[in-house]
Amino acid sequence: MFLITLVLFHLLCLRGNTAVDRSQCIAPLGMENGAIKDEDITASSSFDSGNVGPQHSRVRTEKNGGAWCPQKQATTEPEEWLQIDLETVHVITSTETQGRFGNAQGVEYAEAYVLEYWRPRIGKWMRYHNNKGEEKSATFDVTNC
């Protein structure tokens, strides 16, 4: 199983009894349309920054290598990461990943990832937990694709 840590910056910081109407959280934040700028997407490493650098990690895009690829081959240990600086506080209700098709030269994808977010008030990264307090990671069954 491959594991890539997907890191989003400044995600969630609710104060007091603030309630969020999740039905209003339906708009994409800009990884497809470019609203999130290339310079706000960074990574632990890149195999070839010009061809498969973090700026190429956008969904539904086949520009250059069509994906971000870390310098080393991914392993089950979360060593490589992709970080997206959203610049302001957001509530994230879903995430989307996409593998690399590479113009039919290879189908490559992450089989699993974990989600972490930065908590500015306590100055540390936190792993995403569900409403039961269980640490969650996304895993994908690709045997039927």
Strand segment count: 6
Shape: globular
CA(first)-CA(last) distance: 16 Å
Poorly predicted runs of 5 or more residues: 1-17
Structural domain count: 1
Which value, in Å, is the CA radius of gyration?
16 Å
SS strand fraction: 15-25%
String of helices and strands: EEHEEEE
* Helix content range: under 10%
Q: Architecture, CATH level 2?
A: Sandwich
Number of H- or I-type helical stretches = 1
What would the CATH topology be? Jelly Rolls
**Largest pleated sheet:** 6 strands, mixed
On the 0 to 100 scale, the average pLDDT is: 76
CATH superfamily: Galactose-binding domain-like
The top-level CATH class is Mainly Beta
Structure classification? mainly beta
Keywords: Signal
InterPro entries: FA58C (IPR000421), Galactose-bd-like_sf (IPR008979)
Pfam families: F5_F8_type_C
Protein name: F5/8 type C domain-containing protein
